[in-house]
Amino acid sequence: MIRLQDHSSIGKECPATGDRVLALSNATYAELVTVDDSDVTHLPDGADFADAAAIPLIALTGDQLVRLATNVRTGQVVLITGALGSVGRAAVHAAKKVGAQVIAGVRGKELDDARSLGVSDVLAIDDDKAIEKFPLVDAIADTVGGEVAAKLIAKVKQSGSFGYTSVLPESAAAENPAVKITRVFTKPYPSKVREFADDVRDGKFMLTIGRRMPLRDAAEAHVLGEKGGIGKILLLAPDSQH
Asked: Which of 1, 151, 188, 225 is the one with CA 20 to 30 A from 126?
């Protein structure tokens, strides 16, 4: 999350000096960062300045996984793995906006929680028998990777799509030549960031923030993040609440 320091010279709607803005960027472990003005969008009134820092990466990754990597269309059936994770939730949100029928793939113990996402159905992706019985789908948007992804790719229809964010074993692609396989590499898309920010503010999309920690504790935050299961971790600069 940043405040705009330099007045942009392109377009009447561009943020001005002092505006509250947000953007997808890299190398942000700092109190001050710079980003291209073309990547910046306004933070809507009513949105929390610090919490909104979690929006750009998860929103764009989930959205681009659905819209670009899997190219999901209205009425199609898409399985989204890791649906209760931050990116998974964003992917579910994006797919529902497209008008797809969404199936949430989660661990067996999370099935009830996954149903709260308002999806069409759920699948225990740690249950081989459940996977075996699972019908073919138009697309899979995968945020889990590894052997789970390798098992599930066989459940994509011929000429269907498999998009992923993590790691897919090479053998999985070789054994499923009729499936279009695409890895997502997240790119800036300011208008989509703003769309998600509006939805967060309006309670249409829920950010799962587990911890808010000072920037000086970045190392500890990484340790917690690697353990997983606590939601997004925010690193806060000393003046990030102002």
From this structure: 225
Provide the 8-state DSSP code for 120: S
Stated pTM of the model: 0.89
Q: Are 105 and 82 in contact (CB under 8 A)?
A: yes
pLDDT in tens, 119-165: 999 999 999 999 999 999 999 999 999 999 999 999 999 999 999 99
Which residues have C-beta within 8 Å of that of residue 127, sequence separation ≥ 6? 108
Chain-centre distance of CA 156, in angstroms? Answer: 21
Alpha carbons 38 and 228: distance in angstroms, whole number:
33
Q: Which residue, chain included where needed, has tokens 């009830």?
A: 112
Q: How far is CA 36 from CA 23, 85, 188, in A?
A: 9, 29, 10
